[in-house]
Amino acid sequence: MRRLLGLDVGERRIGVALADADGRAVPLTTIRRTGEPARDAAAIVALEREHDVDEIVVGLPIDMSGGEGSQATLTRAWVESIRPALGSAVRYRDERLSSHLAEERVGPMKRGRSGGPPTRDQRDAWRARVDREAAAIILQDELDARAAQAPPDRQTEASS
């Protein structure tokens, strides 16, 4: 089976998910963006090697209207800036509503002491968890689409 890595690329963090042997996407880690694409690339290359990745699926933030806005342009530019360092093929996947679904899966952010507002550390940890979950949602969408396109004999193998 090909190993796939899913990425949810944000301005501050990159959520990462990995496809397991059963064809399910599982949240893996969150990478803090540095502002230097070479450092971001190095972190992703390390994950590629550690998990023997063949392909990377990057969430592309498509507008609700179906068009590509400024965030999609930034995502594509970031991918192109790191692509030379990557050892895997890169594919894009529509990520509309993935962060919203991830927030629903993760649940509400924990409150601070005595029910007050959350601390900065609590907010950061919650956002990182949401980013990992969003990457898993993006990757699972890709896995499900591939399974639906597989020939009937391969679908039977995948479900056994």
Characterize the structure shown.
This protein is an alpha/beta fold and 160 residues long. The protein has one domain: YqgF/RNase H-like domain (Nucleotidyltransferase, domain 5, 2-Layer Sandwich). Helices cover 46% and strands 21% of the residues. It contains 5 helices and 5 strands; from the N terminus they run E-E-E-H-E-H-E-H-H-H. Strands 3-2-1-4-5 form a 5-stranded mixed sheet, with helices on both faces. Helix 3 crosses helix 4. The longest helix is centred in the C-terminal third of the chain and has 30 residues.
Query: Using only CA atoms, what is the Rg?
Result: 16 Å
Task: Provide the domain count.
Answer: 1
Please tell me the overall pLDDT.
Answer: 86
CATH fold type: Nucleotidyltransferase, domain 5
End-to-end C-alpha gap = 14 Å
Q: How much helicity do the residues have?
A: 40-55%
* Strand portion: 15-25%
**CATH superfamily placement:** YqgF/RNase H-like domain
The count of β-strands is 5
H/E series: EEEHEHEHHH
Read across the widest sheet, the strand sequence of neighbours is 3-2-1-4-5
Could you say which structural class the secondary elements and strand pairing correspond to?
A: alpha/beta
The profile of the biggest β sheet is:
5 strands, mixed
Oligomer: single chain
| CATH class category | Alpha Beta
CATH architecture type:
2-Layer Sandwich
Low-confidence region ranges: none
Number of helices: 5
Principal-axis shape: globular
